[in-house]
What we know:
This protein has helices spanning about 10-15, 30-35, 55-70, 75-85, 90-100, 105-110, 115-125, 160-170, 200-210, and strands at about 130, 135, 145-150, 175-180, 185. By secondary structure, it is α+β, with helices and mostly antiparallel strands.
Amino acid sequence: xxxxxxxxxxxxxxxxxxxxxxxxxxxxxxxxxxxxxxxxxxxxxxxxxxxxxxxxxxxxxxxxxxxxxxxxxxxxxxxxxxxxxxxxxxxxxxxxxxxxxxxxxxxxxxxxxxxxxxxxxxxxxxxxxxxxxxxxxxxxxxxxxxxxxxxxxxxxxxxxxxxxxxxxxxxxxxxxxxxxxxxxxxxxxxxxxxxxxxxxxxxxxxxxxxx
Length: 211
């Protein structure tokens, strides 16, 4: 599957829920999902005429939703699943933890970017460092105890400063810590499934790959 370049709000409507792909816009009345919370297309707004979804279709849709939330391509996602299956523990939970450990997700969760797509752009442009070393690979996997920071020359970027200010007011997830004054975030521990606020039913994804 190639990178999706179409309207992100269309993806939220396809899955029938907000995937928060456009940052702060998703929390305002400009959010397209708030105005048109039905499936896109000619048949989308016709009430009472819903196609029956098969078990396979439900599993496939859940996999697609997870890929879109985290911005992962098909081959990458399949590789993550393979790694999750090889690890000890529950495969679905391992998969979610691997996705959460991506640098672009950590940058977003800590509050250095308003969305994962924005985080990917900033990372590729070389604005972040991990444990004091520049890292420009969005898929870089973070470990417990790692420090993720904005490089000194990049701390004046308006988008980064605005994102940090917004996150400072609401806080971050419990397994991450943000020092807004130093533009540094810390991974206190790897998250359990209960600590991952993603609307994904990972068991459906496991069932999809187990067919």
